[in-house]
């Protein structure tokens, strides 16, 4: 979630396993621990870097990547234990997105994607002349193979996959939607890729690396601006948030993949009028209508207290239970419980986050009821880029970046 939000949050996102919330604002950036929703803990705050529009954390380590509006072409890797800035790297265009896993750091500008090695911070490859990606729609697998997903067209929802380890295209092009892409998200293990278009009515899930469409969910009948997609760590649930008041949680039930076969079995029995109807529909209705009839719907949903705020969603496990977390651009974090049988999620905790809220004032009362940066095109100038190797950094809770990647 990145934009201009007046006096509130400029950016919010979660680390790879959704154990931390990162917030960028006009006065700096903050990190919150999500291990205890009863008392939200701000574990770190930096007020030296102003107007932070991107902040991403390397898992639960001391390293974060930071981009400020004052220097939108400069990527800083910041060591939060030492309060020191390392690895400053300059690009010729504004940085739109940064992604990290244990092998690679990915930087997205409008028409290029830079692949860095984590262990030595060197650029190993540049994906050049990509279709203009003004919103920085991109994702990187958090574990397993280092795969990058990015838009392959500005006119349709085509997805390209790049293998950052072997430095080659995956060899499959996913035609996900007829409209341009609004969001991409890999599951934690990299076996699924969720997509949404600018229309925002349908969420699709594809198998990786095959590119086969496995699931299709109906988010709504009316269009919406999709703000974020998020898988649970086990890949069984997928959340979608938008500019509407409803946050959807879909269940990736294996039985849904077998639904056409189940329907065929019912048809063959000819023992019910529904079986007869399904058979007639498959024979006479257009393919698009048949697909609509087979779309899944929400397993669970949550209602946000406010409408129209940009937001970012996560599905962490807290105290052994799956939770739905939503952070909004007006500085609220909402925590919902997800019942075993689905349905409407209960709002259990609400906190204020971002600038102006100290440790004692984070928690709020539960309410009832109901940038993207503009960039200019241009090629990367490697002479403007400075790469540093971290040979002596003591990370505390993780190996140093010079340590061999897992």
From TrEMBL:
Superkingdom of the organism of origin: Eukaryota
Annotated InterPro entries: PROPPIN, WD40/YVTN_repeat-like_dom_sf, WD40_repeat_dom_sf, WD40_rpt
Swiss-Prot/TrEMBL keywords: Autophagy, Repeat, WD repeat
Gene3D superfamilies per UniProt: YVTN repeat-like/Quinoprotein amine dehydrogenase (2.130.10.10)
SUPFAM superfamilies named among the record's database cross-references: WD40 repeat-like
GO cellular component term of the entry, any: cytoplasm
GO biological process, one term: autophagy
Region ranges (Disordered): 382-406
Family: Belongs to the WD repeat PROPPIN family.
Protein name: WD repeat domain phosphoinositide-interacting protein 2
């Amino acid at each position: 979630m990145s934009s201009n939000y007046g006096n509130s949050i400029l950016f919010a996102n979660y680390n790879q396993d959704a154990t931390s919330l990162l917030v960028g604002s006009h006065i700096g950036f903050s990190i919150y621990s999500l291990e205890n929703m009863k008392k939200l803990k701000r574990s770190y705050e930096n007020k030296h870097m102003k107007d932070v529009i991107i902040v991403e954390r390397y898992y639960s380590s001391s390293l974060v990547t930071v981009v400020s509006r004052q220097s939108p072409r400069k990527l800083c890797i910041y060591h939060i234990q030492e309060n020191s800035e390392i690895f400053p790297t300059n690009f010729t265009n504004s940085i739109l997105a940064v992604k990290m896993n244990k092998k690679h750091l990915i930087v997205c500008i409008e028409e290029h994607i830079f692949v860095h090695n984590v262990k030595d911070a060197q650029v190993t490859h540049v994906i050049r002349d990509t279709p203009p990606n003004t919103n920085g729609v991109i994702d990187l697998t958090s574990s397993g193979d280092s795969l990058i997903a990015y838009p392959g067209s500005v006119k349709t929802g085509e997805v390209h996959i790049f293998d950052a380890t072997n430095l080659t295209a995956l060899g499959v092009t996913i035609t996900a939607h007829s409209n341009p892409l609004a969001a991409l998200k890999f599951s934690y293990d990299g076996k699924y890729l969720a997509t949404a278009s600018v229309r925002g009515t349908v969420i699709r899930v594809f198998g990786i690396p095959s590119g086969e469409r496995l699931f299709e969910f109906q988010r709504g009948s009316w269009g919406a601006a999709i703000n974020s997609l998020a898988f649970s760590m086990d890949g069984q649930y997928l959340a979608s948030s938008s500019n509407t008041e409803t946050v959807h949680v879909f269940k990736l039930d294996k039985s849904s993949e077998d639904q056409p076969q189940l329907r065929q079995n019912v048809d063959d029995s000819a023992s019910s009028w529904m079986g007869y109807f399904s058979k007639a529909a498959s024979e006479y209705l257009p393919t698009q209508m048949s697909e609509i009839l087979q779309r899944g719907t929400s397993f669970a949903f949550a209602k946000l207290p406010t409408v129209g705020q940009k937001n970012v969603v996560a599905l962490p496990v807290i105290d052994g239970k799956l939770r739905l977390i939503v952070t909004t651009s007006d500085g609220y974090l909402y925590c919902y419980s997800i019942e075993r049988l689905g349905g409407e999620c209960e709002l259990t905790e609400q906190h204020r986050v971002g600038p102006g809220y100290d440790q004692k004032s984070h928690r709020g009362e539960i309410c009832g009821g109901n940038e993207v940066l503009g960039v200019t095109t241009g090629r990367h100038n490697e002479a403007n880029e400075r790469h540093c190797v971290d040979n002596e950094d003591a990370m505390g809770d993780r190996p140093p970046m010079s340590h061999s990647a897992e």
